[in-house]
Amino acid sequence: MLLEITPRASQSISLTPLIDVVFILLLFFMLSSTFNKTRQLELKATSPGTQSLLPEVNRLLLLTDNRADLNGTIYTVDSIAFSQQLSAIANAGGAVTLTAHSAVRVQQTIHIIDNLRAAGIVQLNLSPSVSE
Amino acid sequence: MKIVATGQRVSQRSNLDNSMIPAINIVFLLLIFFMLAGHIETRDEQLRIPASSSDSELNPGELEIKVSASGDYRINGHSIDGDLQSTMAGLGLSPQTVVLCHIHRDLPSSALDPIILAVQKHGIKTLQIATEHTL
User: Fold this and answer.
1) Residue of B nearest to A109 (CA)
2) In sequence order, which ranges of A7-61 are alpha helices (DSSP H)?
3) Residues on chain B touching A38 (C-beta within 8 angstroms)
4) How many domains would you assign to chain A?
5) Maximal C-alpha separation, chain B
6) Which residue ranges does UniProt annotate as crossing the membrane (chain A) (predicted)?
């Protein structure tokens, strides 16, 4: 018996379903992934007995409307004058006791702690908030 | 009518497939990038921690306090019944205990007061606040 063997035509696999799946995966990862990293801010809690042991304690009261009272003088938090004062405190090796007004949001408090750290202030104490 | 089949359509399709290959390559690269660089985490709208420029690695504290947007305090995953100070008093804390605080960013600063007072009361020296470092 003679069999006729015909060469099978090469069938190309369609890429379209694969691309569909890859696009869906891409969308999933793009929408659900986050690039934010959780970090920490380390603070020293003020204890009344140890405040007097610090070399020079500067009192910083964080007010609403992006203002701050540093040793009795009111500054805008992002002003150059305020940054200069913080740098002067850092250069003198002074400590800062931070107190926030009770209406100030936590994010603003963290923002000013960031500013203090950026100025080079190492000794930073956090006190309970005040309402007046 | 005479229909003449030519290979024109087949070659057009083949050309289209070939021209899609660079696009597919880029899509694959994007997919690999997002799979490796990003990480998937549950988004809790009730506890969005504040953003900061701090780059210190987060160390798990021995005592973890979470304060949600509704003002609920949870210690090590358990909600507390009474006030925070009395609850912490029963935990036998030492001054060397590291307290890690996750607090919702939009809460007033007064929400931190019970934690600061409790930390002061127990003579705890280090209070860590979890923050989000954004790129």
Assistant:
1) B109
2) 16-32, 48-51
3) 49, 58, 130-133
4) 1
5) 99
6) 12-31
